[in-house]
Design goal:
Rossmann fold, 5-stranded parallel beta sheet
Length: about 140
């Protein structure tokens, strides 16, 4: 199963050892993120550090471990899809545009997120963590 991963998922995985981390390391899935994702993580790294009780250095170390199972897609690879993604998400949340653009750019099963903004659009299938947990348990 191929999924685009929203930064909310990576941030959740960095904050605590949970089912999200387990899912990210599950070989059943192929995960993809736009490189834009790291800008958002960078903006929140101090908060992630405080809430996770990890040093900033250890947050980055854990991120590196998690990214071993995630393919990072360069911005230039999704440029042609940005306009369409802006039409879909522009009035909802501009920060989500790169994730939708990535999802539009290749054949996949949708976006994994905990960001409810994605549920306001109908173009790309949205998977919440609970949906994926239910899927692998069946």
């Amino acid at each position: 199963m191929k999924l685009v991963v929203d930064s909310s998922v990576l941030i959740a995985a960095l904050m605590r050892d949970s089912a999200v981390r387990e899912l990210l390391l599950n070989p059943f899935f192929e995960f993809y993120v736009p490189e834009h994702c790291f800008e958002e993580i960078e903006r929140h790294v101090d908060e992630i550090s405080k809430r996770s009780v990890l040093s900033v250095q250890n947050v980055y170390l854990l991120l590196g471990i998690l990214l071993a199972s995630v393919q990072v897609v360069p911005a230039e690879s999704i440029l042609e899809w940005i306009g369409e993604a802006e039409k879909i998400m522009g009035k909802i949340d501009m920060d989500d545009v790169p994730f939708v653009a990535l999802a539009l750019s290749f054949l996949n099963d949708g976006i994994w997120t905990e960001d409810r903004h994605f549920l306001k659009q109908r173009r790309v299938k949205v998977w919440l963590t609970r949906d994926l947990l239910k899927l692998i348990r069946e």
